[in-house]
Amino acid sequence: MVFIVDWLSHLREHTESGAAELDLTDLRAGDVLRVGTMNTLYTLRVLDADRTVEMQTDRADRPSGQVKIVGCTFGLSSTIRPNHLFCGGNLELSFTQDGVRMTHTTSSIRTLQCLRRTVE
Predict the structure, then answer these.
(1) Are 89 and 111 in contact (CB under 8 A)?
(2) Predicted confidence (pLDDT) per residue in 77-109, tens digit
(3) Which of 2, 13, 68, 104 sits at 20 to 30 Å (Cα–Cα) from 41?
């Protein structure tokens, strides 16, 4: 049996459901994101407007250090929504390890929290 998913309709339903969503273009240096997935808690401190972040996790088997947030994928597809994170989607990150460009895609996002840097 083959299942065909209309991703555009699926994304539209998600958007209309009111699920938590974060526009990454609103982030500023110093902001901190906490992204809780099914398996891991990611803490991402924003370094610049290019979505480069310093990442820490609660698991030793996950990437850490400086990474770039690419956006959010939906389900097990490569369909990506750049510049956004949303509950139910999968956080996609890129980084360089030993001179090789790598991509890490998380399990489903369960919680999103953004702590804004205070302006001095």
Answers:
(1) no
(2) 666 788 889 998 999 999 998 999 999 999 999
(3) 13
- Asked if 28 contacts 101 with a C-beta cutoff of 8 angstroms, the reply is no
State the DSSP code for 24.
G
Where are the alpha helices (H) located in the chain, listed in sequence order?
7-16
Task: Establish how many alpha carbons lie within 13 A of residue 116's alpha carbon, considering only the half-sphere containing its beta carbon.
Answer: 7
Alpha helices, H only, 32-120: none
Determine the Cα–Cα distance for residues 59 and 21; give it in Å rounded to an integer: 24
Q: How many CB atoms lie within 10 A of CB 20?
A: 13
Q: What is the pTM of this model?
A: 0.78
Q: Which residues contact 117 (CB under 8 A, 6 or more apart)?
A: 28, 29, 30, 31, 32
